Amino acid sequence: MQPRVVILDYGSGNLRSAQRAVERAGAVVEVTADPHAAMEADGLLVPGVGAFAACMAGLRSVHGHQVIGKRLAGGRPVLGICVGMQVLFDRGVEHGVETQGCGEWPGTVERLRAPVVPHMGWNTLDVPEGSRLFAGVGPEERFYFVHSYGVLDWELEAASAHIAAPLVTWSTHGRPFVAAVENGPLWATQFHPEKSGDAGAKVLANWVASL
Predict the structure, then answer these.
(1) Catalytic: 194?
(2) Would residue 94 show up in a list of annotated catalytic residues for this protein?
(3) How, if at all, do strands 186-189 and 175-183 pair?
(4) Which of 1, 66, 98, 197 has the fewest CB atoms within 10 Å of its CB?
């Protein structure tokens, strides 16, 4: 049985490109804003491009933040991509305006500290040992980024000795920023796997295989 994936349509993201990429990774994909379908799918993909505040407004308009929270409470897989990753954090600050995020992880999305912004193009990653998301991906592989904001400081540590700390992957543009996270059923990437060639296809295949 192929896993069923819903790509949440809340008015943000390159939905058709993501749909084709996830279908190639082996899933049956539906693009919809329907909360019931999003709850029932084996995997939920949350895309996102543009401004943090606009994405959060769109997400709330379809009750996406509630769907994400309910899925995670039940251990149901969610994958966030680009701003779809950023909105999982506590807050985003753009042009001095602070917007509340979904609050699944502590932390702030802020402007990158680099001589050239946006960070646009291909970059390597610093992947932690034991990553399932990047299994089979070589250390020299590059992934496609296009963003002006990111998470510069990871604030969540292990809750106890019995609960593993999230696996955090980093990249560097000016200074290090969070490029991906694996935290139980919640995985996310700042880069666009659907635009990252064979390496990105492998990342999506790894997620689909985990469903």
Answers:
(1) yes
(2) no
(3) antiparallel
(4) 1
Q: What is the reported pTM?
A: 0.96
82 is a catalytic site residue: yes
**DSSP SS3 for 69:** helix
List per-residue pLDDT tens for the chain, 211 residues long. Answer: 899 999 999 998 779 999 999 999 999 999 999 999 999 999 999 999 999 999 999 999 999 999 999 999 999 999 999 999 999 999 999 988 999 999 999 999 999 999 999 999 999 999 999 999 999 999 999 999 999 999 999 998 765 566 678 999 999 999 999 999 999 999 999 999 999 999 999 999 999 999 9
Which entry of 55, 82, 102, 147 is annotated as an active-site residue?
Answer: 82
Q: Rounded distance, CA 88 to CA 84, Å?
A: 7
In angstroms, the CA 62 to CA 43 distance is 17
Among candidate residues 110, 141, 182, 194, the one labeled active-site is 194
